[in-house]
Amino acid sequence: MFIIWKLALILPTTDHPIHIPHSLADLKLLAATLKVYSSSHFIYVLVLFCAVFLFKQSFGVPGSALLNVLAGALYGYPAIILISVLAAIGSTIGYLLSKHIIGTVIFGNLISRSRILSWRMAVDEHRDNMLPYMISIRTMPVVPGWFVNLASPFVGVPIGTFFTSTAIGLVPFHYICVQAAHTLSTLESMAGIFSIWTVLQLFMITAVIIVPVVFKKRLAKLYRKITSY
User: Fold this and answer.
1) CA atoms of 199 and 197, how far apart (whole Å)
2) Helix (H) or strand (E) holding 120
3) How many angstroms separate the CA atoms of 7 and 121, rounded?
4) What span, in angstroms and rounded, lies between the C-alpha atoms of 115 and 65?
5) CA triple 134-162-129, angle to 5 deg
């Protein structure tokens, strides 16, 4: 947080000071301000954005969608790669914090152990197809992201698989957010990002990932049956 404060002091002051956006209206003003700053302080703005993004992602602070849209407004479609890598790094920091520091305190107190065991059983079923399974978890977030970050080290998800699946699995969501940045001026609410079409897109992408895994498992079972005779 010291880096965030220090970098913010370097940038010029305006009627709209640098801060973390909390609403769409807030985001529009901040995007306009940072675009002006970025033209003469590109590196400072980029480092400031990365620091805030990593902080929020590491500690599971809500509001990542607003930052995703902000990234799209500032950097266009290349922002998809930037925020996907940052999300993977931040989530992995959360993974490590959970594994070595806060996990044993949280589970059993704030999160029931039965919920952990239930997800561990699901993970065990996909042990042979761990990466596609974890990518699908990220692509269609039926399981909350913060829970995936905290629980993964305790259900046997390797850190390499965790990082890779986060970076790849969040790309569709990041694409939708960055795409929304191009219509930021006409966007009336964050709900406008998630139209029926965009939700269908997420479902289709998830299906493309999951279907081969399901068929592979069924074919493997069939092969074992045939060879057992």
Assistant:
1) 5
2) helix 113-125
3) 45
4) 26
5) 40
Domain that holds residue 59: 2-228
Query: In the prediction, which pLDDT does 165 show?
Result: 94
d(CA 107, CA 25): 37
Collect all residues with Cβ–Cβ distance below 8 Å to 204 and sequence separation of at least 6.
Answer: none
Residue 172: how many other CB atoms lie within 10 Å: 20
Res. 68 pLDDT band, cuts 50 70 90? very high
pLDDT, tens digit, 9 for 90 and up, residues 127-142: 888 998 899 899 877 7
| Alpha carbon 89 to chain centroid, angstroms | 10
Q: Report d(CA 111, CA 49) in Å as an integer.
A: 31
Q: Which tokens hold the place of 50?
A: 């990365």
Q: Rounded to a whole number, what is the distance in angstroms from the first to the last CA of the chain?
A: 64
Please tell me the distance from the alpha carbon of residue 52 to that of residue 30, in angstroms, as a whole number: 14
Tell me the chain's radius of gyration from C-alpha atoms: 20
Tell whether the model's pLDDT for residue 228 goes beyond 70: no
CA proximity to 37, closest of 49, 45, 28, 29: 45
If one counts the domains in the chain, the total is 1
What tokens appear for 174 in the block? 């990041």
Which amino acid, 205?
Answer: I
